[in-house]
Specification:
The longest helix is centred in the first third of the chain and has 16 residues. The two termini are 26 Å apart. The chain is 30% helix and 26% strand. With 93 residues, it is of the alpha+beta class. It is built from three helices and four strands, in the order βααβαββ.
Length: 93
């Protein structure tokens, strides 16, 4: 089972001061949901729930978006037509 949250026409959101924090919080939420253990490391009584968040931009500029998302607590990757963000394991151990 998995869940995907999609933000359509995210261009105005990209311009906000809080956009990098917004992406970080979504990554934190996805990480917790994708985990099979609680915050103490004890196994959960449920399987992990895969969560992904997608922002769709009308004016997609991979380098600009990656630069806006980049921060120490995230690992940002780029591909053909995509920018990905995930928690940086060195910052979130």
């Amino acid at each position: 089972m998995g869940i995907a949250g999609v933000v359509h026409d995210a261009d105005p959101l990209l311009q906000t001061e809080h956009f990098p924090l917004f992406v970080s919080v979504l990554c934190q939420g996805a990480d917790r949901a994708n985990s099979a253990a609680d915050l103490d490391g004890d196994p959960l009584d449920r399987p992990a729930v895969t969560r992904h968040f997608v922002s769709e931009f009308r004016d997609f500029d991979r380098e600009r978006i990656a630069a806006r998302v980049a921060q120490p607590d995230l690992v940002v990757t780029t591909g053909n037509g995509s920018v990905g963000a995930a928690l940086n394991p060195e910052a979130w151990q």
